[in-house]
């Protein structure tokens, strides 16, 4: 305790100052860090939900056999360059959910840019794109 001329002034102990300034804020900092990490991990997990397993068919839905090829090179679709497309009932649609590169070199002898192949598919047409849930490329005959 320090005596002044007219009043008494209490000086806080160093540990008390540390406790007020650091320990109380430490919990706030930890909470903020936890929130930031949670947002990071959740955003990464949601970002990956667009990619699902297209190699397993849903037995409750019918499987269609369609033509599959490069939308630009073989089906004359505009706008996406060399991207996988399917032809259903005579109309071609770009495919969402499977990449042209997942099935080897698109410019190889039996690649999608060179040949039209048959594939088993499940999915639905949404906004002029085929949202695939199952895709199986059939062997060349």
Describe the structure.
By secondary structure, the chain is an alpha+beta fold. The chain contains 1 helix and 7 strands; from the N terminus they run ββαβββββ. A 5-stranded mixed beta barrel has the order 3-4-5-7-6. A hairpin with a 4-residue loop joins strand 1 and strand 2. The radius of gyration is 31 Å and the shape is elongated. The termini are far apart. The model has no long low-confidence stretch (mean pLDDT 80).
Fraction of residues in β-strands: 25-35%
Name the shape in a single word.
elongated
Compute the number of strand runs.
7
Low-confidence runs of at least 5 consecutive residues: none
Quickly count the helices: 1
Q: Please, what is the average pLDDT?
A: 80
């Amino acid at each position: 305790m320090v005596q002044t001329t007219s009043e008494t002034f209490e000086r806080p102990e160093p540990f008390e100052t540390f406790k007020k300034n650091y320990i109380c804020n430490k919990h706030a900092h930890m909470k903020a860090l936890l929130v930031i990490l949670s947002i990071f991990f959740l955003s990464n997990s949601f970002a990956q939900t667009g990619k699902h397993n297209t190699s397993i068919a849903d037995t409750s839905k019918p499987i269609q056999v369609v033509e599959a090829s490069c939308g630009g090179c073989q089906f004359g679709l505009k706008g996406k360059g060399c991207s996988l497309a399917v032809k259903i009932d005579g109309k071609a649609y770009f495919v969402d959910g499977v990449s042209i590169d997942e099935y080897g070199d698109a410019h190889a002898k039996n690649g999608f840019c060179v040949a039209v192949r048959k594939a088993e598919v499940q999915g639905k047409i949404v906004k002029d794109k085929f949202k695939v849930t199952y895709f199986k490329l059939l062997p060349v005959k």
